[in-house]
Fold this protein.
Amino acid sequence: MTVRDLLVVGGGINSVGIARDAAGRGLAVTLTEMGDLGGATSSASTKLIHGGLRYLEYYEFRLVRESLSEREVVLRQAPHIVWPMRFVLPHDKSLRPAWMIRAGLLLYDTIGGRMSLPRSGGVDLSGPPWAAGLKSGLRKGFAYSDCWVDDARLVLLNARDAADRGADVLTRTACVSARREGDVWLATLESEDGSRSEMRARAIVNVAGPWVQQFVTGVAGLNAPAAVRLVKGSHIVVPRIHAGEHAYILQNDDRRVVFIIPFEQDFSLIGTTEVTLEGEPGPVAIDESEIDYLCRAVDRWLAKPIRREDVVWTFAGVRSLYDDGKTDPTAITRDYVLEFDATEGSAPLLSVYGGKITTYRRLAETVLKRLKPFFPAMGQTWTVDATLPGGDIPRRGNPAADFEAYVDALGRERPGFERAFLHALARRHGTHTAALLDGAEHPEDLGTAFGGGLTAREVDWLMQEEWARTADDVLWRRTKTGLHMSADQRAAVAEYMARSRAAA
């Protein structure tokens, strides 16, 4: 039985980031995920690459500094799925005084070092463009910069790069048992059809997210030195609330903030809630009280209130946070904590608690630094300067303009396609769009058009290159085309994929 260097357990953003980094340093890596890649927490975020402005109130200065630094890195590496966005914060002196907000934004502008995005400043909310969708009577606001990300695609691109560098990526495969045999682990893997196999690994990195503690105590049979707090975050999607490409960050009277973010051209994404969960982790969904909370939180600021029937889609995920003893879920640290289990001569287990999508690459570097003594021949750090698949778009200094120039070039090369179609495809695949469209001169060359800009050619690509197996994998994670389809169109995608799997 071949011995691998690392077994990475979990298929979220931190897991795939570790697998990618390790494979690029020459380690033999196997990643196992019991469901779909990014199928839980990492596809249910607020979809931001940001420093975390509100974390400054909890004195999380190191986390904010690292996050802002990483914001620059991720924007540079994947400009097709990450792009700058301006956030407008209307002011209400009864919630936070203006001086506090100005001071926080000044710190936010400078704490991360040299930044490429525009700095913060005051804005006039008495008219366009910043007042779009807001109720009348508001006058003062503040604007700052952060980035939007297609979170599920960030996971997939890291997994794809890890696989291209030699990692084995096993989806819908659970690690059900792990025990030490001297200086290696013997792990039992179970696929979705119930079949089992065994593998050996010199180290295990447990990045199971909400299941991190269950892996330590149940699968590995060890004592868990740390506790995890499970916090559900839910979002709603409604028809587009405001014109313009800026987002809103709205203060609520419980001192939390709620975002309204332009989403998929025709919609607005609103979130998030923070609800403490007890018991075992599992699938979650938004509940009515959370929908009511989000509607109330934004209605105090909007010219047109949101009705329950306006909600066209919801999603929820569970964040596993390191239990730092705080009772308020909003105040629990979003920083990552590593717990190490190893004695001299035994195979190590490193468990990752917490973490946020923005800092996934830095977390991976920290994990591999901790494992370096066990793998002295490991290569050096490399990911800071490496683009993600499809991210090698020619750069001239402005990521947004560079992307639009790339789409223009695609249009000149393929005049038979509408620009809006090419734009959406390039948002998902970047420079790999050319390979996906290889040989196609007109839309009919791409096979069945299911609706929402999704074609049979792209579904085939997602199944062959990105581990997609179900319609949900395609419609709601690898793309968001499900939002633009009817129920019959979505069913047609499911039927097509089932036929493709049967024929494989």
Notes: The longest strand covers residues 228-239. The two ends are 28 Å apart (CA to CA). The mean pLDDT is 94.
